[in-house]
Amino acid sequence: MSCARDRLVLASIHDVSPRFEREVDQLLDLLSPHVGRRLAMLVVPNHWGDAPIVAGSAFARKLRRWADEGIEMFLHGNVHRATATAESSHDRLRARWMTAGEGEFLSLGADEALARVRDGRALLEDIIGRPVVGFVAPAWLYSDGAKIALEQSGMLIAEDHLRVWSPATGETLASGPVITWASRTKPRLASSLLAAPIVRKLPMRALRIGVHPPDVRHPALVRSIASTFRSAVAHRRPSAYAGLLS
Description:
Blueprint: E1 8-16, H1 21-35, E2 40-43, H2 58-68, E3 72-75, H3 89-98, H4 110-128, E4 134-135, H5 144-153, E5 158-159, E6 163-165, E7 172-175, H6 186-199, E8 206-211, H7 219-235, E9 237-238
Parallel strand pairs: 1-2, 1-8, 1-9, 2-3, 3-4
Antiparallel strand pairs: 5-6, 6-7
Helix pairs in contact: 1-7, 4-5, 6-7
């Protein structure tokens, strides 16, 4: 059996944006007792096209301070909203089941995806004063073109629901489902509460736990998140995504 030091917890806060500044602060307060600053933030440059991160703003300064404290910064799409309809019936089903119109990179060709990655990356790296650690598509949904774009961009780390990989090399860095919570409907909320204690017991080397701003609006989800992290760090070491590359 592997020791606790070999078993990892990878924590992330999604949808980091001025739109959700209060909720992101609350999530950071919720996670910090368990992982400190050993977590990732998935940053959206302009959430839904009307919540831009402006260089020099108070929120931009907060992002830079968090990065200086050791929080990993990932680019999380560009607007976090789908601007085209998925072509295949399979992808349309994925979009309908997994997200409410936010699968931004599910329908993009390689050229458009690369342009969005480059634009968002340039903005975020200028704000935080260092390279981003990687890229995570909104709702973890990627078109084939988006995956090609990530390879062309030289991104070192990306993830979806079932794995973390390096677009630059094609290497799988970690495998296994991510624990996340859903609150759009009561059935989704109930199923995510049931899934969390099951998934956290699976024999994975790296346990990924992702939280979203709406989670803090539901006391049951807050309790489940806290319980999941307490259980995880009792037997695992909080780690950075970048550590998977070594």
